[in-house]
Amino acid sequence: MRWTKKQLSIVAIVAVTSFMGTFLISSVNIALPAIEKSFGLSAVALSWVLTSFLLANAMFLLPVGRWGDITGIRRMFKIGVVIFSLVSLACGLVSSGFWLIFFRFVQGIGAALTSTTGPAILVSAFGPKNRGRVIGIAVSGVYLGLATGPFLGGMLTEFAGWRFIFFVSSALGMLTAIVALLFLGKDEQKPEFSKQIDLKGTAFYMAGLLALVYGSVLIPEVYGWMMLAVGILFLIIFWKMETRSSFPVINTRLFTQNRLFAYSNLASLINYSATFAIVFLLSLYLQKILKLSPREAGTILVAQPVMMALFSPLAGRLSDKIQPRFLTTLGMSMCTIGLLAFAFLTNTSPLWLIVVELIWVGIGFALFSSPNMNTIMSAVDRNNYGIASGTAATGRVLGQIISMTIVALFLSGFIGHEAIEAVDDHLFMQVVKYGFICFSGISLIGIYFSYQRGIVRRAA
């Protein structure tokens, strides 16, 4: 099949925006020690530079999926690119840690609009036979961002300063916004009866998620447990309201009556919960323990996302030919083994061993991610592409938040409110050891859901 110019432009635009978000996340990971020095942030506050972005993502991804189905996924996509670009510029100009965390939250809203609607735009432009292939290309853009982020972020931080990471992201975003406005096209007109949404349920979802994440950071304080309980209660109320609503934000039947969809999303949540904090911990480990520069640390960390970028398109194409659960289960198993291996790092671990472990986990993640996304989108009909894409993206970001929350708990337990730079190396290595043991245990559970999801039934 030959793709049209419109199809090629859609693939390119979605792939570039996929690249932007992960480039920023991975490059900021490398810049964390420099940001810590600029604003004098504690270890827990430093983790919020990442968590605030992820929290906004999680709060808006699910509603955006429904809003996109109602108002038009292309329109939402364009708005998201513009917000992301302008706020990236603001992040580079801030004068305090508070404002950086605040603008990172707003930046996460913009990223939510693009990451939810992007896959939906892709699958609506291509037939089922090419779905895995184009998703693989888009996911490859995600991993190229992860691959170039550590190296370029390290270079920019070392030679120009961490603020230039945000300036570069802003410039790339503005260029993409112009291309999207010119070539992405308009949405089809939808009937008026479909343009309704349950705003009360959305409010409970957002408030519950905010209380849950912020409360987990305050643990073991009493207020932390109270907020955690309130967050869980609000999310339960949200689920009950969505089940009864005539215009829900999320179709709960997709989870209660569609095992393939439910288990695939749960497997994604578990995988990201176990793997996202790898770069955060190793970036600090390489610079604090092994005394590498930001550029040198970034060069080492490139190994994992390069493997993701190389193998993700292949895994996506394979998932069009064989049952995706075989690929995802193999990938999850490789991630579990690699995470456990990271728990045995020491103050004198050789760099070649770290690179080998990163390569192993990178291949495992690539084998899991594209086939898993292909399964999620293949488990629903065309009318639910937006919500399926939003649900998948929400699960991914919730997993990332869980991963960072676990790290924050270990940092709080072993380090407290001190800066990482001032902490004894032995204490920091305890965070690394027990963090990776915890993550490998989480990943082990994911193997079950990855395999037991069922089979994809493809149209002839």
Describe this structure in words.
This protein is mostly helical. The chain has 17 helices and no strands. It folds into two domains: 5-182 and 249-452, MFS general substrate transporter like domains (Growth Hormone, Chain: A); 198-248. The protein has helices at 5-39, 43-71, 73-93, 97-125, 131-159, 163-183, 199-218, 222-244, 253-256, 259-275, 277-289, 294-301, 303-318, 324-342, 351-378, 385-414, 425-452. The model has no long low-confidence stretch (mean pLDDT 81).
Layout of helices and strands:
Layout: H1 5-39, H2 43-71, H3 73-93, H4 97-125, H5 131-159, H6 163-183, H7 199-218, H8 222-244, H9 253-256, H10 259-275, H11 277-289, H12 294-301, H13 303-318, H14 324-342, H15 351-378, H16 385-414, H17 425-452
Number of strands: 0
Helix percent band: over 70%
Round the Cα radius of gyration to an integer and report it.
21 Å
What do the pLDDT scores average to?
A: 81
DSSP helical segment count: 17
Structural class: mainly alpha
The name of the CATH superfamily of the largest domain reads MFS general substrate transporter like domains
Low-pLDDT residue spans: none
Tell me, briefly, the overall form.
Answer: globular
List keywords for this structure.
460 residues; mainly alpha; Growth Hormone, Chain: A; 2 domains; 17 helices; globular
